[in-house]
């Protein structure tokens, strides 16, 4: 399960709040740099929600959620407990139609939660406007950034345009951080399997090919990932 983060919507001194005109390019450049400085996907999302509140006109709160098709919504990062409370009402059950629209379009806007069926919980928290933008999508799962505001009709075409430009940068940074994390994990896994292979060679007096085959058979027999079998062998060896 992905880690979850709650962060304060603190100020970014290098960014103009709700940029417009020539300031927009500069603000997006600074935002992109800060996103690309993150080392993991979790930190990328954490930075993204903070930046969203600062960059997107009218945004007061923001969250990033994962939506499974026909199933549930899970919040991965949020600026404050208001967002967590708003999205928690949909956790474990089919998300509101606002999010479901994102399977067919990259943007979903709610002008007034008071006028939308099923959004009583949102308006009860004082949130009237919502703008959701798709970050990632495959056949089973969406990753979505949603900005919220306490006034109705906040997210107009200009806010949506800035939001789409911003989420394009978030998506690229998120993909880069994911690849980086996967490569790091692959290197750790390779080293771990190498250590486990060496331990088996020493214990059983066999060559590298036979030791690796022994790991594979154990993985298949126990229905456990190869790296977990290797981690267990290395851990046992370290404690002896």
Topology:
Elements: E1 5-6, H1 22-36, H2 41-55, E2 61-68, E3 73-78, H3 81-88, H4 97-100, E4 107-110, H5 120-124, E5 129-137, E6 141-149, H6 157-204, H7 208-222, H8 226-239
Parallel strand pairs: 1-3
Antiparallel strand pairs: 2-3, 2-6, 4-5, 5-6
Helix pairs in contact: 1-2, 1-6, 2-6, 6-7, 6-8, 7-8
Structure description:
This protein is α+β, with helices and mostly antiparallel strands. It has helices spanning 22-36, 41-55, 81-88, 97-100, 120-124, 157-204, 208-222, 226-239, and strands at residues 5-6, 61-68, 73-78, 107-110, 129-137, 141-149. The chain has a six-stranded mixed beta sheet, with helices on both faces. Helix 6 packs across helix 7 (208-222). The longest helix is centred in the C-terminal third of the chain and has 48 residues, at 157-204.
Mean pLDDT: 85
- What is the overall number of helices? 8
Sketch the topology as an H/E string, one letter per element. EHHEEHHEHEEHHH
End-to-end Cα distance = 32 Å
Strands side by side in the biggest sheet = 1-3-2-6-5-4
Low-pLDDT residue spans: 1-11
Strand content: 15-25%
> Which of globular, elongated, flat, extended, rod-shaped describes the shape?
elongated
Give the structural class: alpha+beta
Radius of gyration: 23 Å
Count the strands?
A: 6
Helical amount among residues, as a percent range? 40-55%
Biggest β-sheet strands, sense, barrel: 6 strands, mixed
């Amino acid at each position: 399960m992905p880690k979850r983060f709650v962060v304060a919507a603190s100020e970014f001194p290098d960014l103009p709040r709700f940029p417009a005109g020539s300031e927009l390019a500069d603000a997006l450049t600074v935002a992109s740099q800060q996103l690309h400085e993150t080392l993991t996907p979790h930190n990328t999302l954490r930075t993204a929600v903070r930046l969203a509140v600062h960059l997107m006109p009218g945004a007061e709160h923001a969250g990033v959620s994962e939506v499974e098709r026909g199933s549930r919504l899970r919040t991965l990062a949020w600026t404050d407990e208001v967002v967590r409370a708003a999205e928690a009402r949909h956790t474990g059950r089919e998300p509101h139609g606002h999010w479901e629209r994102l399977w067919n379009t990259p943007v979903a806007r709610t002008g007034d939660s008071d006028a939308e069926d099923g959004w009583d919980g949102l308006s009860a928290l004082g949130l009237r406007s919502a703008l959701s933008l798709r970050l990632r999508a495959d056949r089973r799962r969406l990753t979505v950034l949603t900005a919220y505001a306490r006034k109705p009709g906040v997210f107009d075409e200009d806010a949506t345009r800035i939001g789409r430009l911003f989420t394009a940068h978030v998506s690229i940074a998120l993909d880069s951080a994911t690849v980086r994390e996967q490569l790091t994990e692959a290197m750790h896994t390779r080293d771990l399997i190498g250590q486990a292979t060496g331990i088996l060679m020493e214990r059983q007096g066999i060559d590298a090919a036979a030791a690796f085959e022994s790991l594979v058979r154990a993985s298949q027999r126990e229905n456990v990932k190869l790296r977990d079998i290797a981690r267990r062998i290395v851990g046992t060896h370290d404690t002896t």
